[in-house]
Design a protein that fits this description.
253 residues; alpha+beta; eleven-stranded antiparallel sheet; 2 helices; 20% helix
């Protein structure tokens, strides 16, 4: 129930973010889209309060990406698929000692057919609030995310599966930004299922993580933190009440 409320809140924030930033510019040939990305990720080994290093993967494009705007000047016409794999170093439930390093891919339907993109991803996380940087050929996304354990609590029992939900905007990459190694923009064949990357993973240079400069974005981030804190506080009160009073007992006549 808590996970559903978090994802639903983030979906609302996509609309708010689009209004606050004035919506994406639809220049011809340019990628400019406001997106909601939701992807389940498997961690190996499990993550707990003790620093852990390992790998993480969505197992293909098992996640979803919903955008309004354009990619390469083509208008997005529906939801697409998203996948990710990478490595993490010295992370715990509360923080990362180093940014994660990985690659992502996604496929979106447009008015010119399906387009497929790949790029590099890194982040900066505190507890369940994360900030992601996605970089691909000609475009860059900065997004705020919620990272929610899907099994275990992480704080008490280790977790191996998480749900990452990102709200962010793809914009044209600033002039002088180094090109992503071997980016692809293709129309995938219907006969070949879309796969994420290859069998190997290499650590990519960490992308710069900078603070937001738009006051509207700061407001959206504050609203997200308020919603997540409210959900956590409500759940904590319920558990504490049950611990103090025990299960309800009905008096028989």
């Amino acid at each position: 129930m808590g996970q559903t409320r978090i994802v639903g809140s983030l979906a609302v924030l996509v609309v708010i973010l689009s209004v606050v930033t004035g919506g994406p510019a639809l220049a011809q040939g340019v990628s400019a889209a406001d997106c909601l990305i939701s992807v389940p990720v498997h961690l190996s080994p499990a993550v707990s309060m003790a620093p852990t290093s390992g790998t993480e993967t969505s197992g293909g494009e098992t996640g979803s990406i919903a955008c309004t705007g354009t990619f390469d000047g083509q208008r997005v016409t529906g939801s697409g698929t998203f996948g990710y794999e990478g490595s993490f170093t010295g992370i715990t439930c509360l923080f990362d000692s180093a940014p994660l390093s990985g690659r992502y891919s996604f496929t979106v339907p447009t008015d010119a057919g399906s387009l497929h993109f790949t790029g590099t991803i890194t982040d900066a996380r505190i507890a369940i609030i994360d900030r992601f940087e996605l970089s691909q050929s000609g475009a860059h996304l900065t997004g705020t995310a919620a990272v929610v354990p899907m099994n275990g609590t992480c704080l008490i029992t280790p977790t191996t599966d998480i749900l990452i939900t990102i709200v962010g905007s793809f914009r044209p990459a600033p002039a002088g930004t180094p090109a992503v190694t071997n980016p692809t923009v293709t129309g995938p064949s219907a006969a070949v299922p879309t796969q994420v990357l290859g069998p190997t993973m290499h650590r990519q240079p960490s992308l710069p993580v900078t603070g937001p400069t738009n006051l509207g974005f700061v407001g959206v981030l504050a609203m997200l933190c308020y919603l997540l804190a409210g959900i956590a506080f409500s759940s904590s009160r319920k558990h504490r009440r049950r611990a103090l009073h025990g299960p309800d007992q009905r008096v028989r006549s």
